Amino acid sequence: MSREITITALKYNPSDADSQPTFETYTLEETPGMTLYIALTKIKATIDHDLSSDFVCRAGICGACGMVVNGKPSLACKTLTSSFPEGKIDLLPLPTFPLIKDLSVDTGSWMQKMNIRVNSWIVANEPTDISKIEKRISPDVADEVFELDRCIECGLCVASCSTSLMKEDFVGAVGLSRIARFSIDPYDSRTDEDFYELIGDDDGIFGCMSLLACEDHCPKELPLQTKIAYMRRKMVMV
Amino acid sequence: MSQNDIIESITGKTVQKKKSKIPARLDLLQSISGLFLALFIVFHLIFESSILLGKESMYSLTKMFEADFIIEGGSPLIISMLAIIISILFVFHAFLAMRKFPRSYREHLRLKTHAKMLKHTDTNLWILQITTGFMLFFLGAIHLYTMMSQPQNIGPYASSDRIYTDLMWAMYLLLLVSVVLHTGAGVYRLIIKWGIFDGKNPRRNRILSKNIIKAVVVFYLFIGLYSLATYMKIGYEHKDNYGERYHSTSEVNHAS
Q1: Which residues of A fall below an 8 Å CB-CB distance to B?
Q2: Backbone phi, psi, residue B229, to 5°
Q3: Where do the structural domains in chain B lie, given as residue ranges?
Q4: Which residue ranges in chain A fall short of pLDDT 70?
Q5: pLDDT the model gives residue A84
Q6: DSSP secondary structure of chain B
């Protein structure tokens, strides 16, 4: 038997001088297997055409639909409305990122800046000879690297981090896990000294207070706890 | 002021065009100073609760720390010296930990609303850590100064008089609760921060670490509060003889 749910969302358009921040409440009928993404689509189609929120893949792959759901950063497409027994859901845009409108934020610019800052790419001393087979690496190491490559840059780790909220320049768990990924990768020739130049300050690894809200809210369940500790141990010995 | 400092403050890089290693040293020193203070508190509270075994036990332990086995009658100066060393470590640790405190109104507001909405245990634990840390700036300073300036006033009667008749019980109650909670949260943070017990299953071990720390905190709060209540009882019974010092039963027997 279906039930009625109420969804309250922040509505505000910072680029419109006449826009006032306000909370709008919508009541709709819950359908079986309804995700928050489906509920928002229904609201936009039938109740409020002006409500803005982001989505692309609808399958927890692209990371576009991140928002704060009843206080917790979550992906709308992976959140079932049935997981809220009282049927009341409060939505806010992800903090830290520039607000575009309502629930829509610009994670892309933030991630681009972060990726440039941490040099999020392979740096090899030798030119790649594509006529030769790549040097072999052990499956365990490859698994460790690929595990961190599963990050979808949704920004939930940044939005759940107290340091990120207080310090705008903090690189966040996403940035630290990128560095860990390249630090493990045998194809990357950078030394710990080189990585220190990227994250060896209070906006980098030493700004992290190990509160682990990043780990607890990561929709891909990445091993952020161990990888941040791993980078801290490495960087403190440089 | 050195030219190197001026160059680094302007460019953000040392003269070697490298990032300073100071943030790394400060991060490590914050943890090391916190670990030493935590170890000190762990033993201090156990020794302080020797009153639960009786006045004679507490007196013997006090005299042992005053090195009565090598100095006849013991020397309270040793306690003063220990208090000075702990004070230096305490100020150093507070100075390093302050770097993480929220400062501006915006930072406070963002942290407050974030923590209230997120309902995340470790985030709330950190707020408890900075709140108790802030309390310890004052409470710890009072206690340490008392121990530095009046090391001779430690003993079953002297301590009880201070706690009951001198009305220090309220300060000690707040100090006990804040120092035990702060130490518990701090040790847990150290374990997580450096990945000390990550093992093969870090997520399970994190929960395990948290539960062990919780049990230890409850144990220390129990013995601490029980000891404080015992000092209060002794202080109440001894109020009419305020200022009188305890004498060991062996000393009394010897004298008679």
Answers
A1: 68, 70-72, 92, 95, 160, 162, 165-166, 196-197, 200-202, 206, 209-213, 216, 223, 225-226, 229-230, 232-233, 235-236, 238
A2: -65, -35
A3: 25-243
A4: 1
A5: 97
A6: --HHHHHHHHHSS-TTSS--SHHHHHHHHHHHHHHHHHHHHHHHHHHHGGGGG-HHHHHHHHHHHTTTTTSTT--THHHHHHHHHHHHHHHHHHHHHGGGS--SHHHHHHHHHHHHHH--HHHHHHHHHHHHHHHHHHHHHHHHHHHHH-TT--SHHHHHHHHHTT--HHHHHHHHHHHHHHHHHHHHHHHHHHTTT--S-HHHHHHHHHHHHHHHHHHHHHHHHHHHHHHHHHHHHTGGGTTPPP--HHHHHHH-
Domain-wise residue ranges, chain A: 4-104, 106-125+136-236
Half-sphere exposure of A118 (CA within 13 A, CB side): 27
Selected from 3.20.20.70, 3.10.20.30, 3.75.10.10, 3.90.180.10, the CATH number assigned to the domain covering A4-104 reads 3.10.20.30
The predicted pLDDT at position A100 comes to 98
Which chain A residues are within 8 Å of B202, Cβ to Cβ?
223, 225-226
Q: Mean per-residue pLDDT for B58-62?
A: 94
Nearest-neighbour CA in chain B from A151: distance (Å): 18
Q: Is the pLDDT of residue B29 over 90?
A: yes
Mean pLDDT value of segment B49-63: 95
Whether this model's ipTM surpasses 0.85 comes out as yes
Contact across the interface for A212 and B18, Cβ inside 8 Å:
no
Distance of alpha carbon A173 from alpha carbon A158, whole angstroms: 7
A213/B206 touch (CB, cutoff 8 Å), yes or no: no
Report whether pLDDT(B256) > 60.
no
CATH of B25-243, one of 4.10.910.10, 1.20.1300.10, 3.40.640.10, 3.40.190.10: 1.20.1300.10
- Residues of A whose CB is below 8 A from B198: 225-226, 229
Q: What is the pLDDT of residue B73?
A: 82
C-beta separation of A104 from A54 below 8 A: yes
- For position A16, what pLDDT does the model report? 96
Kindly state the tokens that stand for B182.
Answer: 């702060």
Which tens digits make up the pLDDT trace of A154-171?
A: 999 999 999 999 999 999
Average pLDDT, integer, range B60-75: 89
Contact yes or no for A201 and B23 at CB 8 A? yes
Residue in the block written with tokens 């599963």: A150
Q: What angle do CA A57, A61, A63 make, to 5 degrees?
A: 85
B15: closest CA of chain A, how far (Å): 14
Query: Mind listing the pLDDT tens digit for each residue in A105-142?
Result: 999 999 999 999 999 999 998 888 889 998 899 999 99
A180 neighbors A99 (Cβ within 8 angstroms) = no
| Average predicted confidence (pLDDT) for chain B | 94
